[in-house]
Amino acid sequence: xxxxxxxxxxxxxxxxxxxxxxxxxxxxxxxxxxxxxxxxxxxxxxxxxxxxxxxxxxxxxxxxxxxxxxxxxxxxxxxxxxxxxxxxxxxxxxxxxxxxxxxxxxxxxxxxxxxxxxxxxxxxxxxxxxxxxxxxxxxxxxxxxxxxxxxxxxxxxxxxxxxxxxxxxxxxxxxxxxxxxxxxxxxxxxxxxxxxxxxxxxxxxxxxxxxxxxxxxxxxxxxxxxxxxxxxxxxxxxxxxxxxxxxxxxxxxxxxxxxxxxxxxxxxxxxxxxxxxxxxxxxxxxxxxxxxxxxxxxxxxxxxxxxxxxxxxxxxxxx
Length: 319
Known about the structure:
The chain is α/β, with parallel strands linked by helices. It has eleven helices and 14 strands. It has helices at residues 5-8, 20-31, 58-65, 81-86, 88-108, 146-166, 192-205, 226-239, 256-267, 291-297, 305-318; strands at residues 11-15, 36-40, 44-45, 52-53, 70-73, 113-117, 170-175, 177-179, 210-214, 220-221, 223-225, 246-248, 254-255, 272-276. The longest helix is centred in the N-terminal third of the chain and has 21 residues, at 88-108. The radius of gyration is 19 Å and the shape is globular. The model is unreliable at 44-50 (pLDDT under 50).
């Protein structure tokens, strides 16, 4: 076991701990040997005490955070562009209720450190690239992302107001899209990387002649390997104690066209790519300025993108 002075005496609550990012975070945190780990999801059994928590309910948030030293709030309702267009009200309502109630409950229960995970979707649609934390309020988010992005961004308002009025130690990280083994590959709610991997692997297996991809391929995105994200979250919990937002990313951008071509190559699909331009591109460009994370808590993404994609593809093939 790795010994770590920060975690050794801490009781830690991880919301969303059974999800994609949460599963990786719990695994890594166990290596750091905290005093205890409690997991709470929106609708799931916790691993330790088998209580059922609905984090849209304030009383459940109070129960989940009682006696905890650190709360890492990952729980979210989230999906890709298609999911965002179909369920904007659910995305807004579920996320704003979970975020608001969880942070309030943690404050009432005198939690010593609270970490809220935001989203790159909170940034304005036409943010100058690379996205700097100072730009986060300079416009309205891309329309398909707005209900989700704004609901998550309210955590920042809450954290800053709680610090000012109550001296509550809440921090907010804004990560780019994550990817890696264990990602969500459900077509109705997956993000672009798992969606493309699934399409190309299935097309190769069925000897299909073509794969249809949404949009024009011109939009750009930045992606962070899930294990790197875990490192950034843990470092921020240990070392960062301000309510100013901090980006969490890999510091690069790739067009959706180049991404599709790369995944096509890595999966061994030899057919044709068809671009469905009737479908939206989403935000035109996404790339974060990651200097603040490096300066404040020493985080730099380490995983090579192609290597991370290969590991994700291999994991999916084994399922």
